[in-house]
Amino acid sequence: MTITNQQTSFNYQVTGTNANVQTFTSSGLWNKPANARLIRVCVWGGGGGGGGGSSTDSISCSSGGSGGGGGARTSAYFLANCLPNIVQVTVGSGGAGGVARTTSGV
Q: What is the number of structural domains in the chain?
């Protein structure tokens, strides 16, 4: 792709190819694209499971558990020649919710 801007006081030119974006929703293999020079890896955590609810026998009162924490995100750049041609990708799941209580914890 080449972009040339002739309508401003300076001209700029950008050359390159389209980005190769690969999204993994399950585990698999990543194959390094031919002629790649720079690889950006973005990862997101699945988040934590929520807490279990509680119950009190004496007054038939119950409450829900708290929500789980959000998953973190990070990214990093790698020179393509420093990476192997094939990389195993593992996709995990978020945390399991807490067990609900059916008896008093008091």
A: 1
